[in-house]
Amino acid sequence: MEKHLPSLHFEFYDNQLMSPLTVVNNGHTVNIDLPRSALVPQITGGLMWEKFEPKSIHFHWGSPNSKGSEHTINNERYDAEIHIVHKNVRYFDLSVGEASKFPDGLAVLALMIQAVPVSKRTDNPLFKIFDVLPQIIPNQSNATIKGEFSLQQFLDQVENKDFYTYKGSLTTPMCAESVTWTVFKDVVHFPQKEMSKLWSLRDSRGRPLINNYRKSQNINYRDVYFKHAPVYRGP
After folding, report:
1. What is the rounded distance in angstroms from the CA atom of residue 86 to the CA atom of residue 108?
2. What is the pLDDT of residues 62-86, one digit of tens each?
3. CA 223 to CA 166: how far, in whole Å?
């Protein structure tokens, strides 16, 4: 469904995140908590009527034999998905878990990752994160990322004016109905060799940490909107 929605607005998204940043294998996913800086990155627009600040980044993926994005676009599932989790600034004094009790508590930016057979290294911070994955194979292990990056660098491969958005839930129990989802139409390409590092991680039982995505759910009368900004080609 198309609807006239405001474009996304990113504030301080191109500022370098405060370091050091710690990557954690928590037995369910690869997670990075984002420290609060003096100039706090914020987003608004789409279905987000208030400002949201980023709190963490985590991933969902498949296995050597299956794809693992949580969203599908035109019925296509991708190899993995990045979630940048934001909290409504209205709830500045609450934790993410506490804010999730409110229907406007959270917002998540979702980017699809497609594995490709190239090995060229770019400025995408995914490379810095995946560099330390061999250090966090055991459950509850962590490693420090070397070098700095900004949240904007995650978005450099996508057109942030083209996105799907809807009001939904978290994808992990208790699946609180508190998330404004923004799913970018464009896909991030990332080397297959790097992606395969995810399959070596272990969960809390020492088993391969694979297929950590929630299966597609029924829309259940939700409205899903698509925002598209036509390209101006001149007179």
Report:
1. 6
2. 999 999 999 999 999 999 999 999 9
3. 6
- The catalytically annotated residue of 4, 9, 28, 83 is 28
Q: Is 28 a catalytic residue?
A: yes
Per the domain annotation, does 2 fall within a domain? no
Cα 45 off chain centre by: 17
Range of the domain at 44: 9-209+222-227
Average pLDDT, the chain: 92
Contacts of 173 (CB under 8 A, 6+ apart): none
Give the Cα separation of 29 and 38 in Å (integer): 28
Structural domain total, the chain: 1
As a residue count, the chain comes to 235
Task: Compute the half-sphere exposure of residue 100: CA atoms within 13 Å on the CB side of its CA.
Answer: 17
Which DSSP string corresponds to 109-156? EEEEEEEES-----S-THHHHHHTGGG--STT-EEEPPS--BGGGGGT
CA angle centred on 197, ends 194 and 199, rounded to 5°: 135
